[in-house]
Specification:
There is one protein chain. The chain is α+β, with helices and mostly antiparallel strands. It has a single domain, classed as 2-Layer Sandwich (Alpha-Beta Plaits). About 30% of the residues lie in helices and about 40% in strands.
Length: about 110
């Protein structure tokens, strides 16, 4: 069974930018948790050229129904004109952890 909870991958140019975005998402209850993984290498095609850049990866735990608002918030804060913001379903997970995601992203 696929749950309402999702994981969102977002890349950023550096750790400071990622931390700013992560804090804003958690403060707004758009994310329960954001992990920041430093020193990833991204090779991609952009504007007809192959790019090879160092980036950081954010792994965001949230709910599917919040994705649109989360995406808008990320675009507002992100330095990239086309930031990576992709969601993957959580197919299975610890019941307690999934419950915590729901509670941490719930409106008061």
């Amino acid at each position: 069974m696929i749950n309402d909870e999702i994981v969102v991958y977002i890349t950023a140019s550096n750790e400071d930018e990622a931390a700013q975005i992560a804090k804003a998402l958690v403060e707004a209850k758009l994310a329960a948790c954001v992990n920041i993984i430093k020193n990833i290498r991204s090779i991609y095609r952009w504007q007809g050229k192959i790019e090879d850049e160092n980036e950081v990866l954010m792994i965001v735990k949230t709910r599917k129904e919040l994705f649109s608002v989360l995406s808008l918030k990320v675009k507002e804060l992100h330095s990239y004109s086309v930031p990576e913001i992709i969601a993957l379903p959580i197919i299975e997970g610890s019941e307690d952890y999934l419950k915590w995601i729901k509670e941490a992203t719930k409106d008061n």
